[in-house]
Write a structure and sequence with these properties.
Layout (H helix, E strand, L loop, with lengths): L3 E2 L9 H10 L18 H17 L6 E6 L2 H13 L5 E6 L2 H10 L4 E7 L20 E5 L1 E2 L4 E2 L10 E5 L16 E5 L10 E6 L16 H5 L10 H17 L1 H21 L17 E4 L4 H13 L2 E2 L10 E4 L6 H18 L2
Parallel strand pairs: 1-12, 3-4, 3-5, 5-8, 8-9
Antiparallel strand pairs: 2-10, 6-7, 9-10, 11-13
The chain binds pyridoxal-5'-phosphate.
Length: 358
């Protein structure tokens, strides 16, 4: 039996995509091999790689003067790759810390240059997106995490850098909403939430920002290495890229990112509406900064939260426990979570609420 999986990542993939992968698994398109076994220089893999890149460009409307790179090392590797590639002008960058991953990125960058904290929402447990940024002149870039997976916040409006380019971690909202790529110098995302199984990381970077990077930048962290080789400098994470291609085909069939965004807004809207009117459940995020992808909520009683998580699981609503930094619950409702899954969760929450309120 398939469950509704509310995991923050790795997370659900569309059933149709999994079934296609299953059908292809042992003998991919008459090759007599699985994608997991074939050479990354084979004609079959080459077609997968090119289609994945082409679909990403089409679905995200990526302008011609941007390169799309498929790299390894997870989103976390970009915490170092970004300063190593971009701190080549003034060597200065501004960071906005809106959660755990932004903080990790900020700390990594401190090793490489003159890094300034432009704002942080740590004072209120990362429950909002700071609007007043202390931005400097002459920086190479301004860094943000656009959707904060753990705390359930999202930039409804992108900040405008005072100088330099905008760099964004879009790991947990890529392909979930329409993004104007031309507003960013660089955006990047690990695949394991909205794209594919873990393995590939997508880096979309404006061509003029691709160079040799800082002195000593390791070959494999240098974007130029993969940019010059169409992301085939070395063995890519072939299976993850293949799954991404299938998922992108599926998204295109659904009507692309514009349609997906409507569905995501509807799903998140159902959940927030219920929580806002609930006598038991609360979401502590500043309303205008709420994420459409990750919805944290609590009952206010730790034991009751634990009971909720346990009973939800017994009802086929799994991985709904909040991150250890926040506690409570978190429903991650990425692209692949069907509307029925969200409705089933709400029904379960209603029942639980009735049982536990006077
Ligand atoms: C917003 C964000 N950035 C970065 C990461 C780290 O990704 P990875 O595990 O691929 O390094 C995550 C993982 O959950 C994330 O949600």
């Amino acid at each position: 039996m398939r469950v509704y999986n509310f995991s923050a990542g790795p997370s659900m993939l569309p059933l149709e995509v999994l079934q296609q992968a299953q059908a292809d698994f042992v003998d991919y398109e008459g090759s007599g091999m699985s994608v997991t076994e074939m050479s990354h220089r084979s004609k079959w893999y080459d077609a997968i790689h090119k289609e994945c890149l082409a679909l990403l460009r089409e679905l995200m409307n990526v302008p011609d003067n941007y390169k799309i790179l498929l790299v390894q090392g997870g989103a976390s590797q970009q915490f170092d790759a970004i300063p190593l590639n971009l701190l080549t002008g003034s060597g200065k960058a501004d960071y906005v810390v809106t959660g755990n991953f932004a903080k990790k990125a900020y700390k990594a960058a401190l090793q490489y240059g003159d890094i300034h904290l432009a704002a942080s929402s740590e004072d209120k447990a990362y429950s909002y997106i700071p609007k007043d940024l202390d931005l400097r002149d002459g920086v190479d870039y301004l860094y943000i995490t656009q959707n904060n997976t753990i705390f359930g916040t999202r930039y409804a409006k992108l900040p405008t850098p005072k100088s330099g380019v905008l760099v964004a971690d879009v790991s947990s909202n890529i392909l979930s909403e329409v993004m104007d790529v031309s507003k960013y110098g660089v955006m990047y995302a690990g695949a394991q939430k909205n794209v594919a199984p873990a393995g590939v990381t997508i880096v979309i970077v404006r061509e003029d920002l691709i160079g040799d990077g800082m002195k000593g930048c390791p070959t494999m962290l240098k974007w130029k290495t993969q940019a010059d080789a169409d992301s085939l400098y070395n063995t890519p994470p072939c299976f993850s890229i293949y799954m991404a291609m299938l998922n992108l085909r599926h998204l295109k069939k659904l009507g692309g990112v514009t349609e997906m965004q409507k569905i995501n807004e509807y799903k998140a809207g159902l959940l927030y509406d219920f929580i806002d009117n609930s006598k038991l459940f609360k979401n502590y995020v500043n309303r205008e900064d709420r994420s459409f992808m990750n919805v944290p909520f609590v009952t206010g009683d730790k034991d009751l939260d634990a009971q909720f998580v346990k009973e939800a699981e017994a009802n086929g609503l799994v991985s709904i426990k909040g991150h250890k930094l926040v506690g409570g619950m978190r429903a991650s409702v990425y692209n692949a979570m069907p509307v029925e899954g969200v409705k089933k969760l709400i029904e379960f929450m209603k029942k639980f609420e009735t049982e536990h309120t006077a």
